[in-house]
Structures are given as structure tokens and as C-alpha cells.
Amino acid sequence: MPPVARILLVDDEPNLRLLFKTVLASENWQVCTADDGESALLWLGSDRFDLVLLDLRMPGIGGMDVLESLRAMGDGTPVVVITAHGSVPDAVAAMKLGAIDFLSKPMLPSALRRVVAEVLERHSAPAVEPSATARGAAQVADRLANAKRALNRRAFGEADALLRQAIDLDPNLGEAHRLLGLLRQCEESEQNDYRGLCDWFPVGRPHRND
């Protein structure tokens, strides 16, 4: 039996923490909670997690500061950003620190479970070299998954190449186009005008809530 995935949920709203924890625990994932950035850093400095669900807007130490500290420690744990204040600058800044999955509040339990399952599966599977993947749909899926792993490591050059390969194999692959568009913004100055990026990557809604 595979080990149970451990998730750290960081949000300053107690009702949402309870709701999210109940939803995730129903999938037999082990969930620890932190109500602010300081508590989150204490958890992350002393324990290991397979995934962090991180609210960006919190009093005191905010989610972006937590993400920066996590990466400064050399910790590449995947992070899903949760925010009710979806903004393009936040998305670009978070992506530069390896966060590529976003959810916006409010969200349906099914959306939360789906995104968490996808991220855990993506990071638990060993990375596969593109030349070793099967042809067809599996080949496209492997390149996209490997591109997301590269983005999580902030290996932007590798991610760029993999996304282009995925698009070459499937020109209609919308997710690859959106990620490549956001990656282009990451390569530009942080002072760049971010208006219009939402057309490429709707912050907080890369996954359709159903």
C-alpha cells in the first residue's frame, strides 16, 4: 500500500480550514493546518509534506513570503495557491517561485479534490524523458507533466522546451499554450504591464469547477 499523502493547509479563515480539511480527509489524505504564515513556516521547517495548499492573502506573514521562504530553504514541495484575490502579478510572482496550480475561493469540493489529486499524482510519478515516452496521447501527456515538474523546480528553459514539444504534438493543447503564455510573462520585467495576461491564464481557474 502506498504511503498516505501529507498535505499542509495554510489559511487564516477557520471555517474554510475546517471545510477544506474535511473534504481532503475524505480522500484519506493526512491534513495538517496552519492559520498564518508563521505557523506554516514552523511546520515546513520541522516536517515533510507532499503538498502545500497556500492562501496568499493573510495578515502578518503572507502566502508569498511563505513561498519565498520555502524555496530559499531549498524545499521544492509542490504548492497550490489558493486566493480570493486572483491577480495577474500574484500569479506571475508565484510561478517564478514554482507554484503553477491555482484555485480561487469559493470553490466546489470536487474542484479541490481534483486539483490535489492531479498535483499529487504528477509529483509522485518519476519524471520520464520525452524520448522514452509512448507515442500519441501518452506522449503529449508526459511532456506536459514533465513541463509542470520543471516549472515547479523553476527550470524555465526546460519547461519552455517541453511545452513547445507538447504543442508540436498537439497544436490544440490549450493548457500548454496558457502555461507558455504565462512563462513568457515570467521572462519579462516584473514592472511589465500584466493586463491582458488573464486572456492567457485565468488566475485561480486553470481547472473548471464542476
Describe this structure as you would to a colleague.
With 210 residues, the chain is α/β, with parallel strands linked by helices. It has a domain at 6-127 and 191-199: Rossmann fold. Helices cover 48% and strands 11% of the residues. The chain has eight helices and five strands. It has helices at residues 14-25, 37-46, 63-72, 88-96, 109-124, 137-152, 156-169, 174-187; strands spanning 6-10, 30-34, 51-55, 79-83, 101-104. A five-stranded parallel β-sheet has the order 2-1-3-4-5, sandwiched between helices. Helix 1 (14-25) links the parallel strand 1 and strand 2. Helix 2 packs parallel to helix 3, helix 4 (88-96) packs across helix 8 and helix 6 (137-152) packs antiparallel against helix 7. The longest helix is centred in the middle third of the chain and has 16 residues, at 109-124. The chain is globular and about 45 Å long. The model is unreliable at 129-134 and 189-210 (pLDDT under 50).
User: Which stretches are low in confidence, meaning pLDDT under 50 for 5 or more residues running?
Assistant: 129-134, 189-210
Query: What's the helical proportion of residues?
Result: 40-55%
**Computed structural class:** alpha/beta
Fourth-tier CATH superfamily name of the domain at 6-127 and 191-199: Response regulator
Number of strands: 5
Mean pLDDT: 79
CATH class of the domain at 6-127 and 191-199 reads Alpha Beta
At CATH's second level, what is the architecture of the domain at 6-127 and 191-199? 3-Layer(aba) Sandwich
List SSEs in N-to-C order.
EHEHEHEHEHHHH
Shape: globular
Radius of gyration: 17 Å
**Strand fraction band?**
5-15%
Distance N to C terminus: 30 Å
Main beta sheet: strand number and arrangement?
5 strands, parallel
Strand order of the largest sheet: 2-1-3-4-5
Number of helices: 8
